[in-house]
Amino acid sequence: MNRTGMMVLSMLLTALLCYGQDSTSAPSQPTPVAIGHGAFPVRVIKTLDSSKLKEGDAVEVETAGSFKLPDGTLVPKGSKLTGQVTVAKARSKGDSDSQLTITFNKLNIANGKQLSIKGMVQAVFPPPDEADPGVAGGQAISHAAGLGAPPADSKTGVSTESSSMSQPSMDSKAVGVQGMHGLDLKDGVLTSNGKNVKLGNGVRMIVHVDIFG
Q: Which of 20, 157, 170, 177 could cross-link with 196 by S-S, CB 3.0 to 4.6 Å?
């Protein structure tokens, strides 16, 4: 066999070997598909303070009302929503504000069922004067297909104490900060002109989530 023939044969063998390796490689993981999305109320059960938290810290809140998932599963009040801190910054010299960003990734239903989600804070409300009766009870998450507080203390951050003034009612369509001074929310990022962003025990939030199957 001449030299040219040997080169052609070598190239063919190399191509076949590469094809065999590609065909036996592990299949790529499918991209998660959202099976539903919506918004529901949660309650802070442990103070969140941007001056004491850091990126990656675990966060847990609980649902403030009951609601149903697209498949009819009831999520009782008190179910846990877990996530992590993605940004935590206290205001220091030269900074215009302090920041806190939280993302949620798991919904743990009281019966032990766990769902993967992608969630962000949509709205923030002060703690209620009385026990929250679960304002959003009965507000179902839709299918994907159709689917006044006192002023902030500049030294300690945003005040989250309840006041004698009438509290703003929670609405799953609400956005931004309601009834709290010195705190802003945009695209899931909480900012304060105080030294830190501080959400005390009982502060309520509306969380927008995508649920994955």
A: 157
Q: What's the CA gap between 141 and 139, in Å, rounded?
A: 7
Could you tell me if 40 and 207 are in contact, meaning their C-beta atoms sit under 8 angstroms apart?
yes
3-state DSSP call for residue 155? Answer: coil
Find, among 89, 94, 118, 123, the residue nearest to 191 by Cα.
Answer: 89
Domain positions in the chain are 43-212
- Bridge partners for 58 per DSSP: 84
CB atoms within 10 A of CB 55: 11
Residues constituting the chain: 213
Give the model's pLDDT for residue 167.
63
Tokens of 88: 């935590």
Query: Helical H runs in 36-162?
Result: none
Whole-angstrom distance, CA of residue 130 vs CA of residue 42: 15
Amino acid at the residue 12: L
Query: φ and ψ at 7, to 5 degrees?
Result: -65, -40
Q: For residue range 49-64, what is the model confidence (pLDDT) as tens digits?
A: 999 999 999 999 999 9
